[in-house]
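Let's sit down with a protein and look at its sequence and fold side by side. Go ahead whenever you are ready, and we will take it from there.
>
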Amino acid sequence: MLGLMACDKDAEKTNTVLPSIPQNEIPTTIAYANWIDSEVAFESDENCLNTDKYVFSDFPRLPTFKFDTKLELDEFKNKYKDVFTMNQGYNEVASFNEVTANYDDEFFNNYSLILTYKEVSSGSFRYGITDVKKENGTLNLMVDKLNNPEVCTDDMVGWLLMAEVEKEYIKDCTFFDTQDWEGYSRNALNIENDNNMEKLEENHSTDNENLYDISVQYLIDNNDDPEQNKDGYKMFVDYNGFGITKDSEYRYVYMWIAEESYYVVDNKIVSGSGSSMPYKFTLELNKDKVVKYDIPKDGNEYTSSIKEMYPDDIENEAINYRWKDDKLIKEVKEYYSDLADKSIYYYTGEEYIKLDK
């Protein structure tokens, strides 16, 4: 994903970019951490180096820490041991304890470890430190999303991202910051959409909001999930509407739909199948009847297929949309409120794995 940065022309004339190390020469890594509200967790931490910009900034920032010694790293681990899951990985991503095991006194003789945290709405997304720059006494990490899967898990997770930077390289740095390029892309899109709202209203029909509900109901009515015969099964759906258009024959409904199924085993809430993606529904012009629906293609064709499905002025909103499952998870727990255990599990058939929901 590419982000656009608004520049101050006067500042551009006077700022001096100091020599930088090519990003591929700065080792970076990622470790799993459970989801937390980072603004709440870090805004009062005096060791968070960019709190003023992180909490109060129009440009999305991520909390940034710097460790110059093993003792400082160990103090961070001890402080947040009851906040982060440090001894557990996620699929191919190792645990924080495993990743940091080799950061010993010898490492810190020549290197500092710069760490940042990114909370996300799905464990399917992967992130990385895509650039490291030094400018006017500030070291900036750039974090961006590296993939865009068609179907996403519905678990909220967090990632701890780290860069190993030579102390000699940052000896003249007085400030350390991390810029969230994914967040910047979303903010830029929101500004663009606000500025063009009048145009959107001219080009799109907005007086048929019930068509969103009709489209969702069509999915529910045609659900062929093999798990629906399990005890306590229910399909939960949440959506975001992007717009409705029409031509001489049909109406077209553009929306993001997240659907998750749950059932009960041994008095536990078990997560079943689910998906989260953009849809295009085609309905008859004069009848509230769905004719068909389209979803994006897989892999490298994901973005291009959305552009084929969606009008030009809303395609980027769908491409950059990020769904959060807070509302849906609340509905799930309310629905199964008669169960003593409100935790949500993944069931392998032999054991239960508790999910961070």
Remarks:
- Residues 9-190 form one domain.
- The first helix runs from residue 9 to 14.
- The first strand starts at residue 28 and ends at 34.
- Residues 68 and 168 are 12 Å apart (CA to CA).
